[in-house]
Amino acid sequence: MKVKKFICINCGAPKINDYKSPYIICDYCGSFTDVDYTLGLDFWKASPEKTMMYMAKKVQITNNLQLMLSKGNRYEYARLQREYWDFYYTTYPEYLPPTIDKPEEYKMYIDIAGIAMTNYAFDEFWKNKAVQLSVLQSAIKYDYPQTGAKVKPETFFPMAEFYIQYVKDSLRDYYSNPEYEIMNELLPPTVHVKMKLSMFVQIWLPYLNETDANKFLKMSGLSLEYVEIKKPEGRIQECSNCNEELFVPAGSYKVYCEKCRKINTINKKFICMSCGAENDVPNNPSKPINCSYCGTENRLIQPLFG
Ligand SMILES: [Zn+2]
Ligand SMILES: [Zn+2]
Ligand SMILES: [Zn+2]
Prior knowledge:
This protein is α+β, with helices and mostly antiparallel strands and 306 residues long. Helices cover 47% and strands 14% of the residues. α1 crosses α8 and α2 runs antiparallel to α3.
């Protein structure tokens, strides 16, 4: 079968099962591992009315944020940021990372977004970066052929390059802050970069001709490749939460249910390759684990794809 090529960042497995959200969960170790921007774009375009309503409200909130920033009202700024993120995920629930499936996780995720955005907005270094970005944005010029407005590439790519670097640098800074430690679990840094760039790409793609679009996707690291893979051996199992039928490839430890967004644990025990003793599978089965009896390091999934 021909599939879009996604390789798990943790265990190296290819993505096999169909998916309904823009987020790719590994079929072997259950890690949140990649983003398919095309599905993100589908949700974005599904209801033009909804997207217009969203954009209008976003402009309104952005203006208020700008006002609070100029007044130096940090408290109100943080409250508005939180309100914005909550509005964003209630409007597009499909964009909520699959790792966030409990109300308390959602609250923590939104709180962190609000605090982090506020810290960056009030920080001189990042404030300056944001100003540079908006200068590049307002320099973008358009052509108007029959097919609709297209950006002039020489005005667009400097902004795109700057933005991509800005996202990478700011997220590197963000993940190095111990206050946001929990984010490593909720949203791995490499996936976070892709998530941000995927949203950026979906806004600009309609304004680019095919050549520029391909260049843009390549720069953003979102180009999709297709590969021919043999469907692995496996079995059908019901989701333990919603009874949906799931395909469980042989050798898998965790399979995600796209219907109810729950991870199904497939194997709780593994047999040590050295002494044969039965051990508990760690929470993250892609990590090497030492046998609790003989100390030998076992790799549970990698050998399959090594
Ligand atoms: Zn994996
Ligand atoms: Zn389910
Ligand atoms: Zn052992």
